[in-house]
Design goal:
single chain, 533 residues, alpha+beta, 3 domains, 3-stranded antiparallel sheet, 11 strands
Length: 533
């Protein structure tokens, strides 16, 4: 007699009772997660609802639930056993969520939230149960609205490929940044042309397709990689075809909403071909596909498991540390509105001379508590200084965000035509600043050009890195110093006759006033008034 046949009816009943207790504890704990971190969960839903790029988020949880349901018989044949050691990983996820909240990095908080949901399963049911449904659980990560950070790079690649394709087709092109001119008209690559939504959609569906159609890990990873690369290449070809359609039709086709429709049709055809070809290499026979999901395994333990509610209680205490930690750190500092001191006159004769630069330029930074954009002149040189000051940041008012930039793509006056990084002295230290060149007016018809330097001031430190700025903000809050931060942007007109004139003006201005600028920001930070309200 085999071991499987020795399992008695009594053992099966005990196992069923263990499952009822385990699932009850699991559901209550999951409910607690959604209550404690409801703002993070709702922020994800809000993004799904307003963004076409992430609308697939509504489908991820139902798909995950269906995949788990498909292996329910295998799971029922196993005995759940809580693993209290998982709380260490859960504590790490809670700390990551706290850092994301303090630094107002929504995606970190959202990934941490999903990680908590996933880790509750092995904490209550055990790791052997987790591995049986690892893919459905890990698939939940696709619900996190993530990927827009790659949009600027993807837009740049799309513009370069389109221009190369046009030139290879014999169409003359004049390009500056993301905008270019061909004989039939003006074109520009905007956010919708980046291909981010195509990549995310392809990667999500491709990963699910690979799981359902392949058993080999190598084949699964290969198909996921192809699902990532193909939409990037397809988007480049799509952009080229749209511009050529517009050019050859005298702009009667592929303009306005038309080119978005044509884009989705082209993308849909490419993805269907990808899946059709990928299906030919499926290594799961059709008969096995049906059997594999419903086959029963005999893994029932002789002794039923206990302690599910004890594990759930430990998990609940760990989960509570994150929101309580956030409340404790944020309620300590109640700060007044920051106010800029008079900065119309600076060192070595630099004084405000607004109106010299026309058209005026204003960086696109949202909801700062205080901001100042002044143009200074001295000894025939002109420099602009923009400072946006942030305090008590949240997801609606934060220094680092995808909507904060030098120039938006829908700006009809200014366009960014170049970018880079320069190492520049500032108040006695070397700072790697972001550099950029802006142009006012249409492509080929200039009104004015600006050279720009940009960096961040965080808790007294200087950096041009978004990631380091977020980390410094979180560490400052953990240290009880508040989250006072600012972006500092310096700009000067670029002369067509003297390429280095703008750079020389920026150097002269920073040498004279960098210490004064940092002193002003430090003075504004010292205005903090702490209370325990």
């Amino acid at each position: 007699m085999t071991e499987a046949s020795q399992i008695s009816t009594h053992d099966i009943r005990d196992n069923a009772a263990s499952w009822r207790s385990a699932l009850s504890a699991l559901l209550v704990t999951l409910l607690l997660v959604f209550v404690l971190f409801r703002h993070t969960a709702l922020s994800m839903v809000e993004i799904w609802a307003r963004s076409e790029t992430f609308a697939h988020g509504f489908l991820i949880a139902p798909i995950s639930a269906w995949l788990i349901w498909s292996v329910r018989r295998q799971l029922a044949a196993m005995t759940p056993r809580p693993d209290k050691r998982t709380v260490v990983l859960l504590l790490g996820a809670c700390f990551a969520w706290l850092l994301g909240q303090l630094a107002a990095v929504g995606v970190v908080a959202q990934f941490s939230f999903v990680t908590m949901v996933i880790l509750i399963v092995p904490a209550i049911l055990g790791w052997h149960i987790f591995w049986r449904m690892a893919f459905p659980l890990l698939f939940l990560y696709f619900s996190v609205p993530f990927g827009e950070f790659a949009m600027p790079q993807l837009m740049e690649w799309t513009a370069k490929f389109t221009v190369i394709g046009l030139r290879m087709s014999g169409v003359p092109v004049f390009q500056e940044g993301l905008r270019f001119v061909i004989p039939s008209g003006h074109w520009s690559v905007v956010e919708a042309c980046s291909g981010v939504r195509y990549i995310i959609a392809s990667l999500t569906v491709g990963t699910l397709f690979a799981y359902l159609n392949y058993r080999s890990l190598k084949r699964r990873l290969a198909f996921v990689a192809v699902s990532f690369v193909v939409p990037i290449l397809a988007n480049w070809v799509r952009a080229y075809i749209i511009v050529m359609l517009g050019h050859l039709s005298g702009n009667a086709l592929a303009t306005g909403i038309d080119h978005l429709i044509y884009g989705w049709i082209f993308f849909g055809v490419v993805i269907l071909l990808l899946f059709a070809i990928g299906g030919r290499w499926s290594d799961v026979p059709r008969s096995e596909k049906r059997i594999e999901r419903f086959q029963e395994s005999q893994e029932i333990a002789v002794k039923p498991a206990r302690g599910f509610w004890k594990s759930a209680s430990i998990v609940a205490l760990v989960l509570l540390t994150a929101p309580l930690g956030e409340w404790y750190l944020l309620q300590r500092a109640v700060a007044p509105q920051p106010v800029f001191p008079d900065m119309t006159r600076l060192e070595k004769g630099w004084q405000s001379a607004n109106g010299i630069l026309e058209p005026q330029w204003h960086p696109a930074y949202n909801n700062p508590l205080a901001e100042q954009n002044l143009v200074y002149a001295a000894r025939g040189q002109t420099v602009g200084l923009y400072i946006a000051y942030y305090r008590q940041q949240n997801h609606d008012r934060k220094l680092i965000g995808s909507e904060n930039m030098l120039v938006r793509s829908d700006n009809h006056v200014w366009a960014q035509v170049a970018s880079g990084v320069v190492d520049t002295p500032f108040s006695g230290q070397r700072v790697s600043m972001r550099s950029a060149e802006l142009r006012a007016g249409g492509v080929g018809s200039e009104l004015q050009r600006l050279v720009v330097r940009q960096f961040f001031w965080i808790d007294g430190s200087l950096t041009a890195s978004d990631m380091r700025a977020k980390l410094l903000t979180a560490l400052a809050l953990l240290g009880g110093r508040g989250d006072d931060s600012a972006v500092i942007i310096l700009y000067a007109p670029k002369s067509q006759n003297n390429e280095g004139e703008g750079e020389a003006a920026l150097t002269a201005f920073t040498e004279a006033n960098s210490t004064r600028i940092l002193g002003t920001l430090d003075a504004m930070r010292q205005n903090l008034e702490f209370s325990t309200e």
